[in-house]
Amino acid sequence: MTPDELLALDAEHVWHPYAPMPGTVPPLLVTGAEGVRLRLADGRELVDGMSSWWAAIHGYGHPVLDEALREQAGRMSHVMFGGLTHEPAITLAHSLAELTPDPLRHVFLCDSGSVSVEVAVKMCLQYQRSRGRTGRRKLLTWRGGYHGDTFQPMSVCDPEGGMHSLWRGVLPEQVFVPAPPSDFGAEPDQSYMDTLAEAVAAHADELAAVIVEPVVQGAGGMRFHHPAYLRALREVTEAHGVLLIFDEIATGFGRTGKLFAAEHAGVTPDVLCVGKALTGGYLTMAATLCTPEVAHGISRGTLPVLAHGPTFMGNPLASAVANASISLLRKGDWAADVARIESGLRAGLAPAAALPGVLDVRVLGAIGVVQLDRPVDMAAATRELTGRGVWLRPFRDLIYTMPPYVTENADLTRICSAIVSTVTLA
Asked: Which residues does the record give as pyridoxal 5'-phosphate binding sites (predicted)?
């Protein structure tokens, strides 16, 4: 079929994320991807500054990841995980337990990031019930967060600024505290840490867990906060028997300059969610890790099993490519790449700070953000960005980039200059 025929069928049948049906803005038709470039049906090439929603950290068509898929497909594409197991999943679980902070040793493999949060919440609820704390059914979080699009994750997304406010009255009602001060490099605010401690203490009898995105609040606003607030949460949750969940779906595997954002704070949660970059952007897969205390607590309950079991849990293809992606991180110098990108983003985005309508320019690791004083004009921004050979997906008042770690300096300069030129048009 011609590109026009394909796009006509797309308009008729395909419901795209966060879009009406039928759609109002036609998507760009991608015919291939290699390195950090997306090839379009009209012959253009765009530098991908989004890592395909933050997942393709090694770029596209990486020979190591491609070979891992081919080799595994030649042996076994899928087998049920109930009552059976296989080498790719075992190796992956072992690697995750090695890479993540101690004592996160037990790994539940999931289909997606949202599902990993669902599993994390279920773990915490079952743990509290197994301890006889049946009144502990709620979660505490801070505003400005985003944890996914299924129902439990939606309930801990920002209730006002998030896209899920229309579900108020349907979702479980959780406990919210103010968003953390947005300045990674500033001195921590003691009064805010006191607010966190007071809120957890006041609601301890009804809280199963606290859930937050460590250091970087992603799709809720791309805000960076001081690691001290994570240490404050760890201290107060331990004092009151409340579990602590870190959602590292966006930040895991090096994005913030540490392999996991929790390392900035030097603390370990009771439950950790990872996803997105886990397979290098090749296949959907996530994982929920927990400590022995959580796992053994559930096992001592009246229902001694975790009541969850996805059909494609531990899929061998996804496990194999995840193992290959982790191997690339271990054998390569991802930290130097992320530091190089951070330096390039700081220099390249600095001119935006002086432009009218710019509220803030912030960079952490391989994340660069320009925040405006108004919502982005998506149509105008997309025209300008693609016209300059760059693919980004702004949202709300933000034009931001999270490029693949293999992005070379010239392409990084192109991304930054495209963002700066787009600010005045968006």
From this structure: 113-114, 247, 310-311
